Amino acid sequence: MGMRRLLPLLLAVGLVVAFPALAAAHDAVEKTSPDDGAAVGLLPAAVAITFTEPPTARGAQVRVIGPGGDVVTGAPTVEGRTLSQPLGGRAPAGRYTVAYLVTSSDGHPVSGRFTFSAAVGLDGSTASVHATVPVPQQELPDVTAAAKSQFVPIILTVASALVLVALTVVLVLRSRR
Fold this sequence. Notes:
By secondary structure, the protein is α+β, with helices and mostly antiparallel strands. The chain has a single domain, classed as Sandwich (Immunoglobulin-like), CATH 2.60.40. The chain is built from three helices and nine strands; from the N terminus they run αβββββββββαα. Strand 4 and strand 5 form a beta hairpin.
């Protein structure tokens, strides 16, 4: 087999191997504020999630559920790689669960949860930072289905394979001329 025929074949194989790996790469959470599992003195005025790449603001959802229910105020905002959600001024002290869902820079949904406790609420109330407050799970957004979606990676893989097949056919036909 001549080098002219081997080169397109090697290129095609390399790209077929590389594209699914690239399509499977998702943005990840780099840090949260407050930290997951943290016990803070004063409840912050906002929670923040920093990702490895900037998420898109469209469709971003953040729920912050505590002893008094959902305490978010306003819409979440994205600045650079950080998604922030302001909390209402009447948020009491206690344990909080933050659930989020964003679309990553590569088009995939990124979701998760983290918890923290606050000894002093924005309303001035106090609680033991280790107090256990049940968080009603039905109030948190259902992020499981979106997070498990394989639609985008499958479409990217199929499209990549079709492009590579077409490129290989073109190169093989050119080499026969």
